[in-house]
Amino acid sequence: MPLAEHELASAATTSALGVAFGVRLLVALSRSRALKPLAAATSAAPCRSRRCRRPLFLLPLSFVAADHEQIRDKLLSKLKLRQQEGCGSHGEDKLSQRKLSASLKENNFCIPEHVDQFSMSQIRKATRRLSSKNLIGQGGYGPVYKGNLGGMPVAIKILKPRGSQGFPEFLQEMVVLSRLEHPHIVKLIGVCPESCSLVYEHLCNGTLLDRLKQGGLQWEDRIRILTEQRSALVYLHSSRPNAIIHADLKLNNILLDAGDVSRLGDFGTARVVPVKPLEEETIIRRTVPMGTMGYIDPVFLMTGKLTTASDVYAFGVVILQLLTGLDDLNIVEQVRVAVKMHAVNTVLDPSAGTWPKKPTGQLLKLALRCCSWERKRRPAITSKTKWRSLHTLRAMSTSANKTQK
């Protein structure tokens, strides 16, 4: 059973250890790293890791008079701080570091010069020792903290050892993002191999989903964001000799800066696929479908075949969400019924302002084609002619913004 502070003092009072031994023990402990066995002085459960299996010392505090209370308080504060940081995390960090180093060597991968490497102490300092006040997100990969490194605001994603997403996703995201440079893709600033952390630029306006729920996002901005995200996908799918499939495009993975300029993030499930000559479609077979329900390509879900058309399906859902404001698993069917009944205006989001009727209707139909169950009917993201309705709306939105100014 863990001991509270008053229980520790009580046990020490009845202890046979003398004052002199108590003083020597206190000094020895304060100079050593053997503070972990005293973690039972806090209210949290003691660590069970192999590294922490040492005898529990009951520190005799009966000798502590008024002039020694400050020393006692500092010691207990250190104990609690170490407990909060986690006794077992050190061993897991070392294991992650070894796994990362081995994987990088195995794949002959060198971290590019433009990607900085940070130490665990720098990460802790940047996040105020992983303070809960700095926590801005939580996912299957692990927690995301805001921080400050060298005066630069950053977002730090830290691998959770037992998360639903793990080391392979960490390595994949690092490898992919370190090689990408696009104005509408989140920039990877650095990595911390010691703690399996990824450091990104911090985008203060959060996710596109949050921004949409807040309201006030006008149709001109929505069209601009769609144009930005299409350009990011064109960049990924046009990469040669290997195309990149994001595989988890959704509103939550589109981040916004202070001016609502968008960046595509979270490349943990992205796949780098060799493109065969004269083949437009790239295919990779997987046994376990990945992604988010509502955005997952149904063909991929049934067959395990992931292609660039899978990203097109998800992008179609994003278009429908931005045009309608709906966040529903049945959004495709709802819009399809409205278009069939020539009632497009009934599904458009009125909070976005007055939508240009004809090109908006055309874009809705294009989004439905993106969400077709037949992959051949989906427009290639790289096709200029297929996306004419989006370009038309973008030109109209730019003109409208100039008129307002």
From TrEMBL:
**What top-tier enzyme class does this entry carry?**
transferase
Any one Pfam family match given in the protein's UniProt record, by short name:
Pkinase
Arranged from A to Z, the UniProt key words for this protein are: Ubl conjugation pathway
User: What are the EC numbers?
Assistant: 2.3.2.27
Domain Protein kinase, residue spans? 130-394
The protein here is known as RING-type E3 ubiquitin transferase
Taxonomy, superkingdom: Eukaryota
Q: Which InterPro entries match?
A: Kinase-like_dom_sf, Prot_kinase_dom, Ser/Thr_kinase_AS, U-box_ubiquitin_ligases
High-level lineage: Eukaryota, Viridiplantae, Streptophyta, Embryophyta, Tracheophyta
Catalysed conversion reaction: S-ubiquitinyl-[E2 ubiquitin-conjugating enzyme]-L-cysteine + [acceptor protein]-L-lysine = [E2 ubiquitin-conjugating enzyme]-L-cysteine + N(6)-ubiquitinyl-[acceptor protein]-L-lysine
Q: What terms describe the molecular function in GO for this protein?
A: ATP binding; protein kinase activity; ubiquitin protein ligase activity
